[in-house]
Amino acid sequence: MTARNAQNVAKRHGLPWTAAKGFDTFLPLSERIRKSSLPPDPHSSNVELFLSVNGEVRQTDSTSLMLFRIPTILSHVSRIMTLQPGDVVLTGTPKGVGSVQVGDVMRAGIRVGGKEVEEGSIEVGVEEKGGIFRFDEDMKD
Which pLDDT does position 106 carry in this prediction? Predict the structure, then answer.
């Protein structure tokens, strides 16, 4: 998830986008996916990631379209920081980025050979979350 309004302000001011991507509720995760639920090659054309909003497919693509292979990504990241079991490495998102509104229901997951991997699926409702942050479109330097 990305708060595009906050990201656009950060871009305009040459600031990092971290705040736009780092709100507490912006990374719902499924259960851990068992290695046995995936094919030996996670980049095969029969592995697909998907996202729907209110039952409408927004994103769906094969892991075979990833620009870099998972071992290459993990090798690069581990040169910069220590990776521990359970760490999550985020690499981007398939085409189809769009907005969501309070009350929408997002459903995401992974399919192997057209069959949904049960522990890799998640469904979450979009909710308004309170907090001390107040977005200011006219943020001053």
Answer: 95
